[in-house]
Amino acid sequence: MIPTFTCPITLASQSPRRIELLHKIGLEFSVHPAGVPEPPAVPGENPLEYAQKMALMKARKVADELPDHLVIGADTVVVVAENILGKPATDDEAREMLNLLANRWHLVTTAYAMVKQDQQFEFAHQQTTRVHFRALSTAEIEHYINTGSPFDKAGAYGIQDYSAIFVDAIDGCFYNVVGLPLSHLVDSLIIVSDQLSSA
């Protein structure tokens, strides 16, 4: 059950997927996109640390503007063969990523952070799911690229759209791949509510 907060809750993202997921669990919140640039990971950077760094950066940015709000920031990364895949900027980048993911396992990590600046409070957590793609034909990849869907998604795919047919196995939380691990997020909201009320 979602805990009750005495402060407003704000999502530091305009992601329609994350907005939909938070509505799904009945959380009352407003949307205030962080609007911060998302620099690529440094070669060799730990994916978990990178995702958490980005989630905190987004939450802190909005918390600076709304210090009495509990601000939620999140970031999702796709990792294959020790490479962190961001959002493709071109058809060629999307094609390269999808070919790299085809017929193998990869990891999807979503980190989320909660910041309430007026109480100098920060909380961060991350969750990882293993996902396997079946073999993909050139025609399938080109069709998906032509939908335009890959370009706002880490790893050039969104498991909730047409690319769902690429996935033949999953180990872990499905919603984590969409953008927020709902079960873990609710557990974290309970912890955060208790900590804020006792501060």
List keywords for this structure.
elongated, 7-stranded mixed β-sheet, 199 residues, alpha/beta, single chain, Maf protein
Percentage of β-strand residues: 15-25%
Tally of individual domains: 1
End-to-end distance: 22 Å
Total helix count?
A: 6
CATH class: Alpha Beta
Largest sheet: 7 strands, mixed
Number of strands: 7
Q: What does this 3D model show about the protein?
A:
The chain is α/β, with parallel strands linked by helices and about 200 residues long. The protein has a single domain, classed as Maf protein (Alpha-Beta Complex). The chain contains 6 helices and 7 strands; from the N terminus they run βαβαββαββαβαα. Strands 1, 2, 3, 4, 5, 6 and 7 form a 7-stranded mixed β-sheet that branches. It is elongated and about 55 Å long.
